[in-house]
Amino acid sequence: MYNLANQLTLFRIILLPLLAVIFYLPYDWRFPVCAILFTIGGITDWADGYIARKYNLSTPFGAFLDPVADKLTVAVALGLLIELHSSIWFTLPAIVIICREIVISALREWMAEIGARATVAVSMIGKIKTTLQIIAIVVLLAFDPRQFEIMKLLGLTILYAAAILTLWSMIVYLRAAWPTFKQGAEKSNK
Fold it and tell me: How would you classify residue 115: left for phi > 0, otherwise alpha for psi between -120 and 50, otherwise beta?
């Protein structure tokens, strides 16, 4: 249960309170340090999966914890950034991303429970969305938006692209699961 892959996942979760504390410090260096901490979290996300596959260390606990750590990391970072930017234009894509993560996590859990998890496996759209999301968050965390307007605009533009792909991937997942939904509804109506 507590193999190296799972320890890396737990480490990622433990980084989150540190990220929040540093984010609220009254120093300009907090921005790049927060971006570095978020990046370390991303690297450990890649590393825990790689190690689990390469050394056959996959466990049910790790399979549960890894996506939880992913969602927590993104939600915490976006939550901090929502407060920093305090703008509807920033809040909208952040809410889309966070809500989609919750919906798809619930969908995957339900599909796994009925033995149809492969129906909602990660797609290429989801991988591109995740990459854009990470890039946007790193850019937005790394620079003080009051001093680096261009980086704020760049990060926000990438975040909107991630939010669009987020909606698209959610529609793809829901369409893939629709026959199972429909079949379940028909069974319950009988």
Answer: left
Secondary structure of residue 40 in the 3-state scheme: helix
pTM value is 0.89
Per-residue pLDDT for the chain (190 aa), expressed as one digit of tens each?
Answer: 689 999 999 999 999 999 999 999 999 999 999 999 999 999 999 999 899 999 999 998 988 899 899 999 999 999 999 999 999 999 999 999 999 999 988 888 888 777 766 666 667 888 899 899 999 999 999 999 999 999 999 999 999 999 999 999 899 888 888 887 777 666 666 6
| Distance from C-alpha of 53 to C-alpha of 134, rounded to nearest angstrom | 23
From the list 8, 5, 15, the residue with the least C-alpha distance to 80 is: 15
Helix (H, G, I), strand (E, B) or coil at 136: helix
Structure tokens at 129: 């969305």
CA-CA distance, 176 to 127, in Å (whole number)? 17
Nearest to 162 by CA among 101, 83, 106, 88: 101
Given a contact cutoff of 8 angstroms between Cβ atoms, the answer to whether 80 and 62 are in contact is no
Q: In whole angstroms, give the CA distance from residue 80 to residue 73.
A: 11
Structural domains of the chain in order of their starting residue, each with its CATH number: 4-176 (1.20.120.1760)
